[in-house]
Write a structure and sequence with these properties.
The structure holds two protein chains of two kinds.
Chain A lengths: L5 H21 L1 H4 L1 H22 L1 E2 L2 E2 H31 L3 H5 L5 H27 L10 H25 L3 H21 L8 H7 L3 H14 L6 H24 L7
Antiparallel strand pairs in A: 1-2
Helix pairs in contact in A: 1-6, 3-4, 3-6, 4-6, 4-7, 4-8, 4-10, 6-7, 7-10, 7-11, 8-10, 10-11
Chain B lengths: L5 E9 L5 E10 L4 E5 L6 H8 L7 E6 L2 E2 L4 H6 L1 E4 L11 H11 L4 H14 L15 H13 L5 E5 L7 H16 L3 E5 L3 H7 L2 E6 L2 E7 H6 L3 E8 L12 E7 L2 E7 L4 H10 L4 E6 L3 H10 L3 H10 L1
Helix pairs in contact in B: 3-4, 3-5
The chains are: A mainly alpha, B alpha/beta.
Chain lengths: ~260, ~325
């Protein structure tokens, strides 16, 4: 018996990631451009028009304060939607079977889809950052923190998108989670305001929202200001990644959504 | 002694809705064999293939591919199998060449080597010129050939084709037969399911017939056809006969004034038929074997009712 060698694993992983990157790159007008346009509108309306009347937030111009949150908003939604739509459409068109009949282990399939989600998340994140330069100077307080948080967050939401894609049985079911869960949690996750503005009770409620920790940690990486403990933020992000990865592996191994 | 290409023991499958698709299948496909798996719609053929290719979870039983156990050595099983499914299952928004090369990548084949292999199989199947075109632009026959190229790119020892020529015109079907015979001669084992019984009779040396989740026959094509105790010939005549002669071992009947049909018992000398007709002054213009012998056996074994049987006869 010949085991699947490391080189073969690497080739298989590269193939999946390259295929995923090519998929969203081919349709860049649908995948990469819209988040930049939307974010530019956020900057103009919230940062420029309304933000000038709000004044400072945590000691920063409102426009500068919302930059990290808007970058994270774009990274989260794009990582998620890339994987959920790619996985579901491959199920819908049945070409997920190309992978399922091959000797690629499920762990590698998960990593491949994560690779695609992270690639799109970071590409959009970079694009939004470039757009933000028209409105606010880029401040980087701690580059390793900023980079690690954005990559880990992208991994986390790629995994969440994958799980959604595995369970989804219709196109409706791939839009329910982003619309009714992801977007509200992101908007309430401190993208547009500092959690310290909230009354005590709502501050405690907000701390149940994991996205708050990601936005806060990323804001620390860029601006150096934080409402929460960086260590707790990392632990929460890593904890969610571990739990979602194990869950994704279990459901794929059981063949949920992909096998009869 | 070498391991069989496929060995199935006690295979059962009950779907979540309670439908018992397989009721204990035992099947052996020898290495190098060109094997036909026949059965009416819903008999369980695609379920068996789904289980072998791990797209369907089995309820019970054992599957071994070249000695590798499906439960314990799944990667090795997968590495040895190439599958051409019934339905198109590739991304129609990808170029033809990419589909084949990506599939090779999933098997750990480096890209340069993958392109070399893709070129070989796409050329053999007449698709190399289309390699840069989106798969959705291909005709139905081309899409089927694309799936064959994709299934072969990792050079599996066992190729499984689930109705590969469905909806393919006769010319293309015959060229696909030649291709499949060619790769079988190279030593690759092939399992074929088809509704075209002529196809199975022409290509396959071994056959299993499945009905209602059970194997009702599993033998060589030669042995199966030998079970027919009569053979039917169609005779085109030069002139309409005055009367149709009688013979205890040959049943003759008129299909129209210039056509006779003759059932001859196995073992009966065909010269007896010629002698009988000659004695009556009946001149034969041409003669042919009534197709399809396998169809008769298939219908007998699966006890098809009228409507279903007509559908199969029309397809064959």
């Amino acid at each position: 018996m010949r085991p699947f060698h490391l080189q073969e694993y690497w080739t298989a992983l590269r193939t999946i990631v390259a295929k995923e990157v090519l998929r969203f790159s081919r349709i860049w007008v649908q995948t990469l451009l819209p988040p930049m346009v939307t974010t530019a509108l956020y900057f103009i309306i919230f940062g420029g028009l309304i933000g000038s009347r709000i004044g400072d937030m945590d000691g920063y111009r409102y426009m500068d304060f919302i930059v990290p949150g808007l970058i994270m908003l774009a990274v989260i939604t794009n990582s998620y939607s890339n994987v959920v739509s790619s996985f579901f459409s491959s199920k819908f068109q049945r070409h997920i079977e190309e992978l399922m009949v091959s000797p690629v282990p499920n762990s590698l399939i998960i990593l491949g889809f994560i690779g695609g989600g992270v690639a799109r998340g970071l590409a959009v994140g970079l694009g939004v950052t470039l757009v933000s330069l028209f409105f606010s100077p880029l401040a980087v307080h701690n580059l390793p923190v900023a980079l690690s948080v954005v990559i880990l967050t992208s991994i986390l939401f790629s995994l969440a998108g994958l799980i959604n894609g595995v369970f989804a049985r219709s196109f409706d079911e791939i839009s329910i989670m982003p619309t009714f869960v992801l977007t509200p949690l992101t908007y309430l996750g401190g993208v547009f305001y500092s959690v310290s503005l909230l009354p005590g009770f709502w501050q405690d409620v907000s701390k149940l929202n994991p996205i708050l920790y990601m936005v806060d940690a990323f804001r620390y990486g860029l601006l150096g200001t934080s409402d929460l403990s960086l260590t707790v933020s990392y632990l929460i992000i890593l904890g969610f990644i571990g739990a979602l990865y194990v869950f994704a592996l279990v459901i794929l191994n059981r063949g949920i959504g992909v096998r009869s | 002694m070498t391991d069989a290409a496929l060995e199935i023991r006690g295979l059962r499958k009950t779907y979540g809705n309670g439908v018992e698709a397989l009721k204990g299948i035992d099947l052996t496909v020898e290495e190098g064999s060109f094997f036909a798996l026949l059965g009416p719609n819903g008999a369980g053929k695609s379920t068996i293939i789904g289980i072998i290719t791990s797209l369907v979870n089995k309820s019970a039983g054992q599957v071994r591919v070249f000695g590798f156990d499906l439960d314990r050595e799944l990667q090795e099983v997968k590495r040895n199998i190439g599958i051409v499914p019934q339905e198109f299952n590739f991304n129609t928004f990808e170029p033809v060449g990419e589909i084949v090369v990506n599939q090779a990548g999933y098997y750990g084949i480096p890209r340069r080597d993958a392109w070399r292999r893709a070129q070989r199989y796409l050329e053999e199947l007449g698709l190399w010129e289309k390699r840069k075109e989106m798969a959705r632009t291909l005709s139905g026959g081309m899409k089927r050939r694309l799936m064959i190229a994709r299934a072969l790119v990792h050079e599996p020892r066992l190729l499984i084709l689930d109705e590969p020529t469905a909806g393919v015109d006769i010319e293309l079907r015959r060229s696909m037969w030649e291709f499949l015979q060619h790769i079988n001669c190279d030593g690759r084992s092939i399992i074929l399911t088809t509704h075209y019984l002529e196809e199975a009779e022409k290509l396959c040396r071994n056959i299993a017939i499945i009905d209602h989740g059970r194997i009702v026959e599993n033998t060589t094509m030669k042995a199966l056809l030998a079970q027919l105790d009569t053979e039917t010939f169609v005779l085109d005549l030069r002139e309409a006969p005055q009367r149709i002669p009688n013979h205890p071992d040959i049943a003759l009947r008129a299909l129209d004034p210039l056509t006779l049909e003759a059932d001859i018992h196995r073992g009966q000398n065909i010269n007896t038929l010629f002698h009988l007709l000659d004695k009556e002054g009946i001149q034969i213009h041409s003669m042919r074997n009534k197709s399809n012998r396998l169809e008769e056996l298939f219908i007998r074994m699966t006890q098809l009712d009228g409507e279903h049987g007509k559908g199969l006869r029309a397809a064959s």
